[in-house]
Amino acid sequence: MKRIDFYIIKKFLGTFFFALALIIAISIVFDLSEKMDDFIDRNASLKTVVFDYYLNFIPYFANLFSGLFVFISVIFFTSKMAQNSEFIAMLSSGISFRRILIPYFIAASIITAFSFVLGYYVIPSSNKVRLEFQETYMKGSGSHIGAIDMHRQISPGIYIYIESYNITRNMGNKVTIEKFENNKLKSKLCADNMLYDSITNKWILQRYFIRNFDGIKESLIYGNRIDTTLRLSPKDFKKKKEIVEAMDHNELDAYIADQKLMGTPDVVNSEIEKYSRISTPFSTFILTLIGVSLSSRKRKGGMGINIGVGILLSFSYVLFMKFANMFAINATFPASFAVWIPNILYALIALGLYFQAPK
User: Fold this and answer.
1) At what angle do helices 341-356 and 303-329 cross, to 10 degrees?
2) Confidence grade of residue 72 (pLDDT, cut at 50, 70, 90)
3) How do the domains of the chain map onto residue ranges?
4) What is the DSSP code string of 133-165?
5) What is the pTM of this model?
């Protein structure tokens, strides 16, 4: 490590963390002004707002904006170095462009590790506290969408169909439970509704009948009420995307396994969240290479052109990432591949810009 390495690393990390702190501070001000009425109406104390919400708000938004501000930071200070002819001096003294990239990638590694630790260990636990705060103190955060025409496998060979579900009353209407053995239907239960008993943790099936099949023989049982235990709870009907953001790696794997067993289409969103926790930090290296290659050349128009092109590329990356996620949701590509499509495409762009950079 030479003095020039420390010089570039200091500029990179200093610009990045300053820009990130600035945007987080601005976000907090705007968020506070928007939600102040909710905090007052729900009697949220200052301590609760600061420590339960905004202290857990910071890591979430820091990780959310990290990729964007890596790119903008590299574009900004590298363009300034190019305008001051610092790259001309380094290249003229015999330092290769490849050697100049080393401190950039050291700084990018630090930011990648920072993003990875946040995404895997800090954010899931902080999101639990933040989302609980939103459920309690923010209007509209507690509204959920109930299941409509839900058909799932709740255990191997056991399928349930529910026409509709009332979140407020924890009650499902028009329920059918089918049990299969060796791909043959063994029993079928139909009930007008099912109600969850939070004391016994059982489901109460009302006005039901059960058809049992034994070869060509069939028996019928019916009644007004039967209590049963199902591998199903009221929270499974609360369709909320943010729930996966509050899970650590092991919880997310178990949740994805349950969703696959039940056959729910929401498993794609969970898989996207899982694989994005790796692909998003890795994008720091790609965006760094694009930023350096793009802004290391001295331009007559000044650094404004580099910053404009950099912002355009960064937003196009975010936009393309959303399109790639849609490919996974529409079952065009596996989620594990779809989340990496933007990185693959922009890695090719980065290599093209690298070979065109001044050597």
Assistant:
1) 150
2) confident
3) 3-139+267-356, 148-237
4) HHHHHSTTTT--BPPEEEEEEEETTEEEEEEEE
5) 0.71
